[in-house]
Write a structure and sequence with these properties.
This protein has 7 helices and 7 strands. It is globular, with a radius of gyration of 18 Å. Helices cover 38% and strands 15% of the residues. Strand 1, helix 2 and strand 2 form a beta-alpha-beta unit. The chain is an alpha/beta fold. The protein has a 7-stranded mixed sheet with strand order 3-2-1-4-5-7-6, with helices on both faces. The protein has a single domain, classed as 3-Layer(aba) Sandwich (Rossmann fold), CATH 3.40.50.10320.
Length: 253
């Protein structure tokens, strides 16, 4: 049903207020598997929560294929790990779609679409369409198609940053230890590997902003489409600006 003139005016006012930071946002984060929210976007979500934004945390698949003994028992364990890993951010909604073949699940796209349209978030964070895992790529496509012009979609960094060109950086230094602890909650996934890999990527992204040792950042880019061309005003703060080669600066270089 088309929006009335009053509804359109109300939405324009809401978006204007949102862009000026005049009220708290509702952010939906959708990861393909248990532990994806922790690995790829935990820092941004923690920073957003600290400024008062509401978080709707979603995991698309049951994670049942992600281990040496796949099946229902693993899915149950991974659900518990997801709740533990995200406990400091809030409750997580588990959609329990089949792990490993998300692009072939008949009702996956409609499930994601209904979720987004019912929730009406101000911003969605999900995987980049070029990420390494087929489920990540499929979910990215489902989310982008479902969001349409309801709200902007922000793509998180790929695994180890491969093929990803950042547009926005978020300073996660105050939340880095919490992010590492959240990753380590996923005991079924040999999490020390992912904690170490994440430390490398987040340190590198901060170094791209000339931040010294001990500083960390996550990288993102917008799903660029009308009318969402620039969403910097909606995001938590980037790493502080540090000029290059200035004597006495705490910059990396």
């Amino acid at each position: 049903m088309p929006l009335s003139k009053a509804q359109i005016q109300c939405e324009i006012k809401r978006l204007s207020q949102l862009s000026k930071g005049e009220f708290d946002m509702q952010i939906m984060a959708i990861g393909a598997h248990p532990d994806d929210l922790e690995i790829f976007m935990y820092g941004l979500l923690a920073a957003a929560a600290s400024r008062g934004d509401g978080l709707h945390l979603v995991v698309a698949t049951d994670g049942a294929a992600g281990g040496s003994e796949p099946g229902p028992a693993l899915a149950k364990q991974r659900a518990a790990e997801a709740r533990a890993g995200l406990a400091q951010l809030g409750e997580v909604q588990l959609l329990d779609l089949p792990d490993g073949d998300l692009s072939y699940v008949p009702d996956a796209a409609s499930t994601i679409t209904s979720l987004i349209r019912d929730t009406k978030p101000d911003l969605i964070v999900t995987h980049a369409p070029e990420d390494y895992h087929p489920d990540h790529r499929a979910l990215s496509r489902f989310v982008s198609d479902a969001a349409g012009f309801i709200c902007p979609v922000l793509f998180c960094d790929t695994l180890m940053g491969v093929g990803f060109t950042p547009e926005y950086y978020v300073d996660i230094t105050p939340y880095f230890d919490a992010k590492q602890a959240a990753i380590m909650a996923h005991t079924s996934q040999h999490p020390d590997r992912f904690a170490a890999a994440t430390a490398i990527v987040n340190r590198f992204r901060a170094a791209q902003c000339n931040a010294p040792d001990g500083h960390y950042a996550e990288a993102y880019r917008i799903d660029s489409r009308f009318p969402f061309s620039d969403v910097r005003a909606l995001l938590p703060a980037p790493p502080p600006f540090r000029p290059f080669y200035v004597p006495g600066s705490d910059a990396l270089i």
